[in-house]
């Protein structure tokens, strides 16, 4: 069976055991690279979907800039943008029922790693 992959693959684990000596991430990476992927963006733990959307938007915006940055540099730029993002206080936060999420906290962006070119 012939398989053709895009230049970049995004892989998000929902329930990753980070104590498993890395094998849960290594095996899929090896398979994707063997199938022709040039780079893989992987998360090492589940991240809030709103924070992930914000980070991916920043990543792909950075990748479209001229001159085109390396993928790892674009991810770094997106992470720096996350660090600079102020907290968002919705209705429940405004009412004092919950704290405002802190997008700058590493839990929202540090899960992501770019492998490959």
UniProtKB/TrEMBL annotation:
Domain of life: Bacteria
InterPro entries: CHAT_dom (IPR024983)
Limits of the CHAT domain: 25-117
Protein name, UniProt field: CHAT domain-containing protein
Gene source species: Candidatus Thiothrix singaporensis
